[in-house]
Amino acid sequence: MAEEVDRLRAEEGEYVLAQGGTDFCRSLVRADLVDEYRLVVLPVALGVGDGIFSGLPDELDLELVSSTVFEGGAKADVYRPRR
Hints:
Layout: H1 2-10, H2 22-30, E1 37-41, E2 62-69, E3 75-81
Antiparallel strand pairs: 1-3, 2-3
């Protein structure tokens, strides 16, 4: 997977956007293949579910780059790993 991500990064364009289920996201995080996290928080409490950061062997040191609050209460945060 790391080789494929590196190949995509080398192509012309602005960025590579990865979308998928929790297991796919976790695999990218564990392999240190994420340059930026764009997380959206919706004002809804579900009470169950797995997070993309659960079960990681180490803590992630993330820097908040931007935060936007939308009408209705949703919030979008952009984080980048400190390396």
